[in-house]
Automatic annotation (TrEMBL):
GO terms for molecular function: actin filament binding. The keyword Ubl conjugation does not apply. Heterodimer of an alpha and a beta subunit. Belongs to the F-actin-capping protein alpha subunit family. F-actin-capping proteins bind in a Ca(2+)-independent manner to the fast growing ends of actin filaments (barbed end) thereby blocking the exchange of subunits at these ends. Unlike other capping proteins (such as gelsolin and severin), these proteins do not sever actin filaments. SUPFAM superfamilies: Subunits of heterodimeric actin filament capping protein Capz. Keywords: Actin capping, Actin-binding. GO terms for cellular component: cortical cytoskeleton; F-actin capping protein complex. This is F-actin-capping protein subunit alpha. It comes from Trieres chinensis.
Length: 116
């Protein structure tokens, strides 16, 4: 009849990130089927409101919740497994900029102080 419907759907998410490499994420959430009943009568507008309410619940409970928890854990789990622990040179990067400047000065012959 005009007061009830069965609704279902799916959300496909495809995200792309470039972090020194090509990382793509694909996720699919299947929703339903759910029986939706119009409250307050059998009119088409009542049924449409009930369907919109069901879709909003799915978005909040299933889609946004899952995506939020996935993105929260992504750096600790998924992306961490893709990153190299050591660079290709097999030596750790020394992030002390001063050390690099001193080494560069000595390599170019400017390592000593000039006295005038």
């Amino acid at each position: 009849g005009g007061g009830a419907a069965t609704v279902s759907g799916a959300v496909d998410v495809r995200a792309h990130a470039f972090e020194g490499g090509n990382v793509q994420l694909r996720s699919r959430v299947d929703l339903g089927p759910a029986e939706v009943v119009a409250s307050g009568g059998t009119s088409a507008s009542s049924l449409a409101k009930a369907i919109i309410h069901q879709i909003s619940r799915w978005e909040t409970d299933h889609v946004q919740g899952r995506l939020g928890s996935m993105y929260d854990s992504m750096g600790d789990t998924m992306l961490k497994s893709l990153r190299r622990v050591m660079p290709v040179t097999r030596t750790r990067m020394d992030w002390n900029v001063g050390t690099h400047r001193i080494a560069k000065n000595f390599a170019t012959g400017g390592g000593g102080e000039k006295r005038g």
